[in-house]
Amino acid sequence: MKLDGNSIDLAQLWEVSQGQKKLELDPKARELMKQSRTYIEKRLSSGEVIYGVNTGFGALSSVRINESQISELQKNLVRSHSVGIGEPFSVSEGRAILCLRANALARGHSGVRPDLVDKILEFLNHDVIPVIPGQGSVGASGDLAPLAHVALSLMGEGEVFYSGSRMATAEALKKAGIKPIELQAKEGLALINGCQVMTAVGLTTAFEIRRLCWLTDLAGAMSLEASRGSRQAFDPLISGSRPHQGEAKTARNLLKLLSAETEISKSHADCDRIQDAYSFRCMPQVHGATKDTLRYVIKVLETEANSSTDNPLVFSNEGKILSGGNFHGEPVAFALDFLAIAVAAQANISECRIEKLINPSMSGGLPAFLTKDGGLNSGMMIVQVAAASLVSENKILAHPASVDSIPTSADKEDHVSMGTIAARKLTQIARNAENVCAMELLSANQGLDLLSPLKSSKVLQKIQSKLREVVPPIKSDRAFYKDIDALRALIRSNELIKILTQEVGELEW
After folding, report:
1. pTM exceeds 0.70
2. From CA 316, how far away is CA 299, in angstroms rounded?
3. Which residues constitute the domain of residue 290?
4. Which one is catalytic: 39, 51, 278, 296?
5. How far apart, in whole angstroms, are the C-alpha atoms of residue 478 and residue 439?
6. Residue 51 bears catalytic tag
7. Does residue 509 lie within any of the structural domains?
8. Peptide bond preceding 312: is omega within 30 degrees of 0, i.e. cis?
9. Is beta strand 133-135 parallel, antiparallel or unpaired with respect to 85-88?
10. How many domains would you assign to the chain?
11. What is the DSSP string of 83-146?
């Protein structure tokens, strides 16, 4: 795969994050980088003062640096900014971060040598992934602290993940046969200016959220069937009268999964329940709004992934080196906070359906807590409690990080985005939502089992069989955390998505 600075998308970045792609710099991008580098060297040779090239940084930008000290300046910048703390990002997130950093530099607006991108890709292709602490970025001037740890590894310092182990970079480079890079003018600054950490984490999480949207539709369909609910709310006439894309797509997904009639739905045809609870009836509206949000956020993040976020930016054709603010993470931060809210809401309605299934006054005739021997057995009682805990945690995490700001760098950098905090919170919300989805699948499947020998749709029967391969039928109480862990692993394996695709085609998002 060739990086040209303009065309990376969600699917490609996911493949890179999973170690499925080898990367190289596109020849046209290489020429643009050479042109940009030649221009900045020409300007430097004239004795011109250029921010970040032969000056200090931030509040120290007025300090002129001698030509003999420029290389040392770049090294000192990287070392002094390597102050990230906390648990590191995962190896897959680290791969995505490296990819986006290289892609931004490949655009030719940073004035760095092509050798720098080549070195990043050499690390990536040999799976030498910097240890990048998750905390320490305020999201402007970009992801300074975490990206400094990337640059530190490229210099041969710091730590990396290699061959399944965390080790000193120097040790890993020796084993991999890679030489560290000697940073030249502006290259340290170019490596750490930008929003590639928040964007990479946001995009890889968005990929997983897309899968979660499909499986939440599946879990909702199973819950509706288990409670012998109505399909009427998914009639295309309803979504056609309020034409949000996500609503119509979700309604179509649910109808595909449920089919027109089943033995279960026929068994409740003459009941006196006129309308289902909102958590069933409003799935198109709530799940659909999450899908609409997801599509918007992916568009924002893909735009950011193919942007120039350095400072200053070099425009050699126009004869300009311009200092600006493309490193500010606000566009990304807003989008990540928006998606966090949407995913939290989707998990919330999923938990509502679990509650309906265990509540005999709302479940359409299922036994209390989905167990035949209530009292002796507690059934799904605490499964719902745990789900309630997760969605309440999500409500706290969904508070927007981007509404906060705090002055930094002696008040020179006085407004910041907190975008990387937004990315980290989004990831945790998505993990919680996956577990809630697993809990709903566990509960809905138990509900369908309790309706046996009545059958559901063909596709839901296939899903039931797959779930029973990892979660045995529940006859009496057991340690349900093992079932939840197994179902979450099944969610992440994509096996359920494969079954859905084989049976009803690709679901929409």
Report:
1. yes
2. 29
3. 202-504
4. 51
5. 14
6. yes
7. no
8. yes
9. antiparallel
10. 2
11. --EEEEPPHHHHHHHHHHHHHHHTTS-S---HHHHHHHHHHHHTT-EE--EEE---SSSBSHHH
